[in-house]
Amino acid sequence: xxxxxxxxxxxxxxxxxxxxxxxxxxxxxxxxxxxxxxxxxxxxxxxxxxxxxxxxxxxxxxxxxxxxxxxxxxxxxxxxxxxxxxxxxxxxxxxxxxxxxxxxxxxxxxxxxxxxxxxxxxxxxxxxxxxxxxxxxxxxxxxxxxxxxx
Length: 150
Fold this sequence. Notes:
The chain is mainly alpha-helical. Helix content is 64%, strand content 4%. It has helices spanning 9-16, 20-28, 45-69, 71-83, 90-103, 108-114, 120-125, 133-146, and strands at residues 35-37, 40-42. The chain has a two-stranded antiparallel ribbon with strand order 1-2. Helix 1 (9-16) packs across helix 2 (20-28). The chain is elongated.
């Protein structure tokens, strides 16, 4: 594909790693320039490069704006780096939630609904770790400490 004079929409989808539907939308909306060639559209390599360049600029501007506007982002980044704490992922947070629900003896169907899963197997096999007796005891102590009146 490197020496081609013009790409098809399918080829651009492969180059960008996008699905064909998304790529067609980008072409039809004008985000990726194209020319009509009979019933087909053709996209010059420099137009693909222009699109990639714009996306990179948008992402870096968004990243800069987010960091500049949100002091907690800078704080989390600074303290996390200093403490060598790995970033917390959405998947990790969901897995923690599922495991805590299991530790609290929440029925698996309710946990499935809370985690918004469509299959109980996903909740039980991927997002839930059943704690040991020692873990349950530690959770009880934590609950007692957090709410001594209960």
